[in-house]
Design goal:
Elements (H helix, E strand, L loop, with lengths): L1 H4 L9 E5 L2 E4 L4 E4 L2 H4 L9 H12 L8 H14 L3 E5 L2 H16 L3 E5 L12 E2 L10 E2 L6 H4 L2 E4 L4 H8 L4 E6 L15 H11 L3 E5 L10 H5 L6 E4 L10 E5 L1 H9 L21 H14 L2 H24 L5 E5 L2 E5 L8 H4 L5 H12 L3 E2 L15 H19 L1
Parallel strand pairs: 3-15, 5-8, 5-9, 9-10, 10-11
Antiparallel strand pairs: 1-2, 2-3, 4-12, 6-7, 11-12, 13-14
Helix pairs in contact: 3-11, 4-11, 7-8, 12-15
């Protein structure tokens, strides 16, 4: 697919299987995976609780177009971690974001969507737009081919961490939804300023707009995501990728008020008027629900998150140490299990400040060098992340090989 083909410019690896933190390519070479399928597989490979649960469910039936008990357990587990009581399931985070947008537009009667530079919310028309800053006479435009310019015109893009720009965007009274990643993670890593996300939720509420936190990536960094860590009170939370551990799955949580609205506007053919345009035939299928239940209850526990956060700190400290030893004007990204090479002296607060660290040439060179030494590194827009399957030895080998790469780079 076009998107995957652009992730790197070296020859593609073909994979035959894996075990634990390693996968094996078609030539029988074993690599420790620090890309984690772009965070869609943080459980690892081979015989683990998720694989076992999926196998048992597949033997009973993968899809019934009827709910299973697993869906209730998953919803309750998500509610417990986030204090968001009601959940809908989709096939991906992209679809979860799309449905949150549709519900918000219906509730508010507005069309505009506020986004943040450097974001990624899936390959959907409303969010794949650039420009349209508050007060500009030029509307946002599609950022890729094949997208609707009419849909893009409803987007308002502002800098991350900028409450003044958010205030200006909300002042017109035409914003249905503010959609934000708690930390930008598709352009290296940009963490929120203190109180930025809390203020965002307050400001949307005060102006009649709704707020959605896209925790698709940040869910892998914190138990309960940033929502739990910062005690945030959004109107929606959207999830995907790692929740299903490689089995296609998305989800979105909502407040009781929104859930009641959704319940009253079901899309029933025999009703006088059609309801909300949400849902899909394979949404909440039994296979995905079994995977998510095993992930939440057996793998991604609070103790497991604490363990990988410790390993992530070891990774970041090691990167900082190798950078300092070589006198480079860089530093390590760090949050929980996530790290990486920040190619500027200061950590970024906006997408513009993060862009220098997204260096495809350096990333490709590092990935090839490390792959030839048993490490599969992250894509250019991300950074190495510790999974639930990694060990201290895995992290130490990454640091050893990365240090060797820097030595060869200096030559």
């Amino acid at each position: 697919m076009a998107w995957m083909a652009g992730l790197f410019r070296h020859p593609t690896l073909f994979v035959t299987g894996g075990k634990g933190s390693r996968f094996i390519d078609a030539d029988g070479i074993s690599l420790i995976d620090f890309n984690l399928a772009d965070l869609s597989n943080t459980v690892g490979y081979g015989d683990n609780p998720v694989a076992q649960a999926v196998a048992r469910q597949a033997a009973r039936g993968a899809q019934f177009l009827l709910p299973t008990e697993d869906a209730l357990v998953v919803a309750e587990a998500l509610a417990d971690r986030t204090s968001m009581p009601f959940w809908q399931f989709t096939i991906s985070a992209s679809t979860a974001n799309m449905e949150a947008i549709r519900i918000a537009r219906t509730i508010t009667g507005r069309q505009k969507i506020v986004l943040f530079d450097g974001k990624y919310h899936g390959h959907i028309d409303p969010t794949m737009a650039e420009g349209g800053a508050p007060g500009s006479s030029i509307a946002a435009v599609p950022e890729a081919m094949g997208l609707s310019p009419h849909e893009a015109a409803n987007a308002v893009n502002i800098p991350f961490n900028d409450l003044t720009a958010l205030e200006a965007a909300l002042a017109e009274g035409d914003v249905a939804l503010v959609l934000v990643e708690p930390a930008l993670s598709n352009c290296s890593l940009v963490l929120p300023k203190p109180e930025f996300l809390q203020a965002l939720c307050r400001m949307t509420r005060a102006t009649g707009a709704l707020a959605a936190l896209d925790e698709t990536h940040t869910w892998a960094m914190e138990y309960g995501g940033f929502t739990r860590m910062l005690a945030l009170k959004p109107d929606f939370i959207t999830l995907g990728k790692g929740l299903g551990s490689g089995i296609p799955l998305g989800a979105y949580g909502m407040t009781p008020e929104i859930a009641e609205f959704v319940q009253r506007h079901r899309d029933v053919d025999i009703a006088p008027t059609r309801g909300l345009a949400i849902g899909g035939t394979t949404f909440a299928n039994a296979l995905a629900m079994a995977a998510a239940r095993a992930m939440l209850t057996e793998v991604a526990t609070i103790d497991a998150y604490q363990r990988i956060a410790t390993l992530g700190q070891r990774m970041a400290d090691g990167i900082d140490a190798m950078i300092a030893a070589r006198g480079l004007p860089w530093r390590a990204f760090r949050h929980g299990p996530r790290s990486g090479f920040c190619l500027t002296p200061e950590l970024p607060l906006t997408y513009a400040e993060a862009k220098p660290s997204v260096n495809p040439e350096l990333s490709d060179a590092r990935r090839v060098f490390m792959a030839n030494r048993g490490i599969w590194d992250a894509i250019a827009t991300a950074g190495p992340q510790v999974s639930f399957a990694h060990s201290t030895d895995d992290v130490d080998l990454y640091l050893q090989v990365a240090a060797s790469f820097l030595d060869n780079l200096e030559r």
